[in-house]
Amino acid sequence: PDNIKQWKCPDGKFIQNLSGHNAIVNCLALNSDGVLVSGADNGTMCFWDWKTGYNFQRFQAPVQPGSLDSEAGIFQMKFDHSGSRLITCEADKTIKIYKEDDSATEESHPINWKPDILKRRRY
User: Fold this and answer.
1) How many CB atoms lie within 10 A of CB 73?
2) pTM of the prediction?
3) What is the pLDDT of residues 25-73, one digit of tens each?
4) What separation in angstroms does the CA of 40 have from each of 17, 43, 70, 95, 111?
5) Which end of the chain, N or C, is surrounded by fewer C-beta atoms within 10 Å?
6) Residue from 69, 71, 68, 87 nearest 27 by CA
């Protein structure tokens, strides 16, 4: 599986691997709330907590009707200025805009949060 590697700049110290994609990762986007989103060749988007590396959501981008499954890739993504909408450019020749679910609560979308970064040994 492909990993996203997090490094501390400028000294180049390795911090952690973000593992979860089973395809080539093409793009990343980070908002001011510390949410990192990664997009891959197979159309998957993973939503990460940047500080802990926790993958709190995984999403499969829908393919445009009439497109092949191989056209599910995500080539580019960016958050808008508000940081709440995600804009993606995909292999099926579409631009998609995703918005936060305002009605989501901790009860409707529970998170099983167990950060590995707190359990790691210091070198």
Assistant:
1) 21
2) 0.80
3) 999 999 998 999 999 999 999 999 888 888 888 888 888 888 877 788 9
4) 16, 6, 12, 15, 23
5) C
6) 87
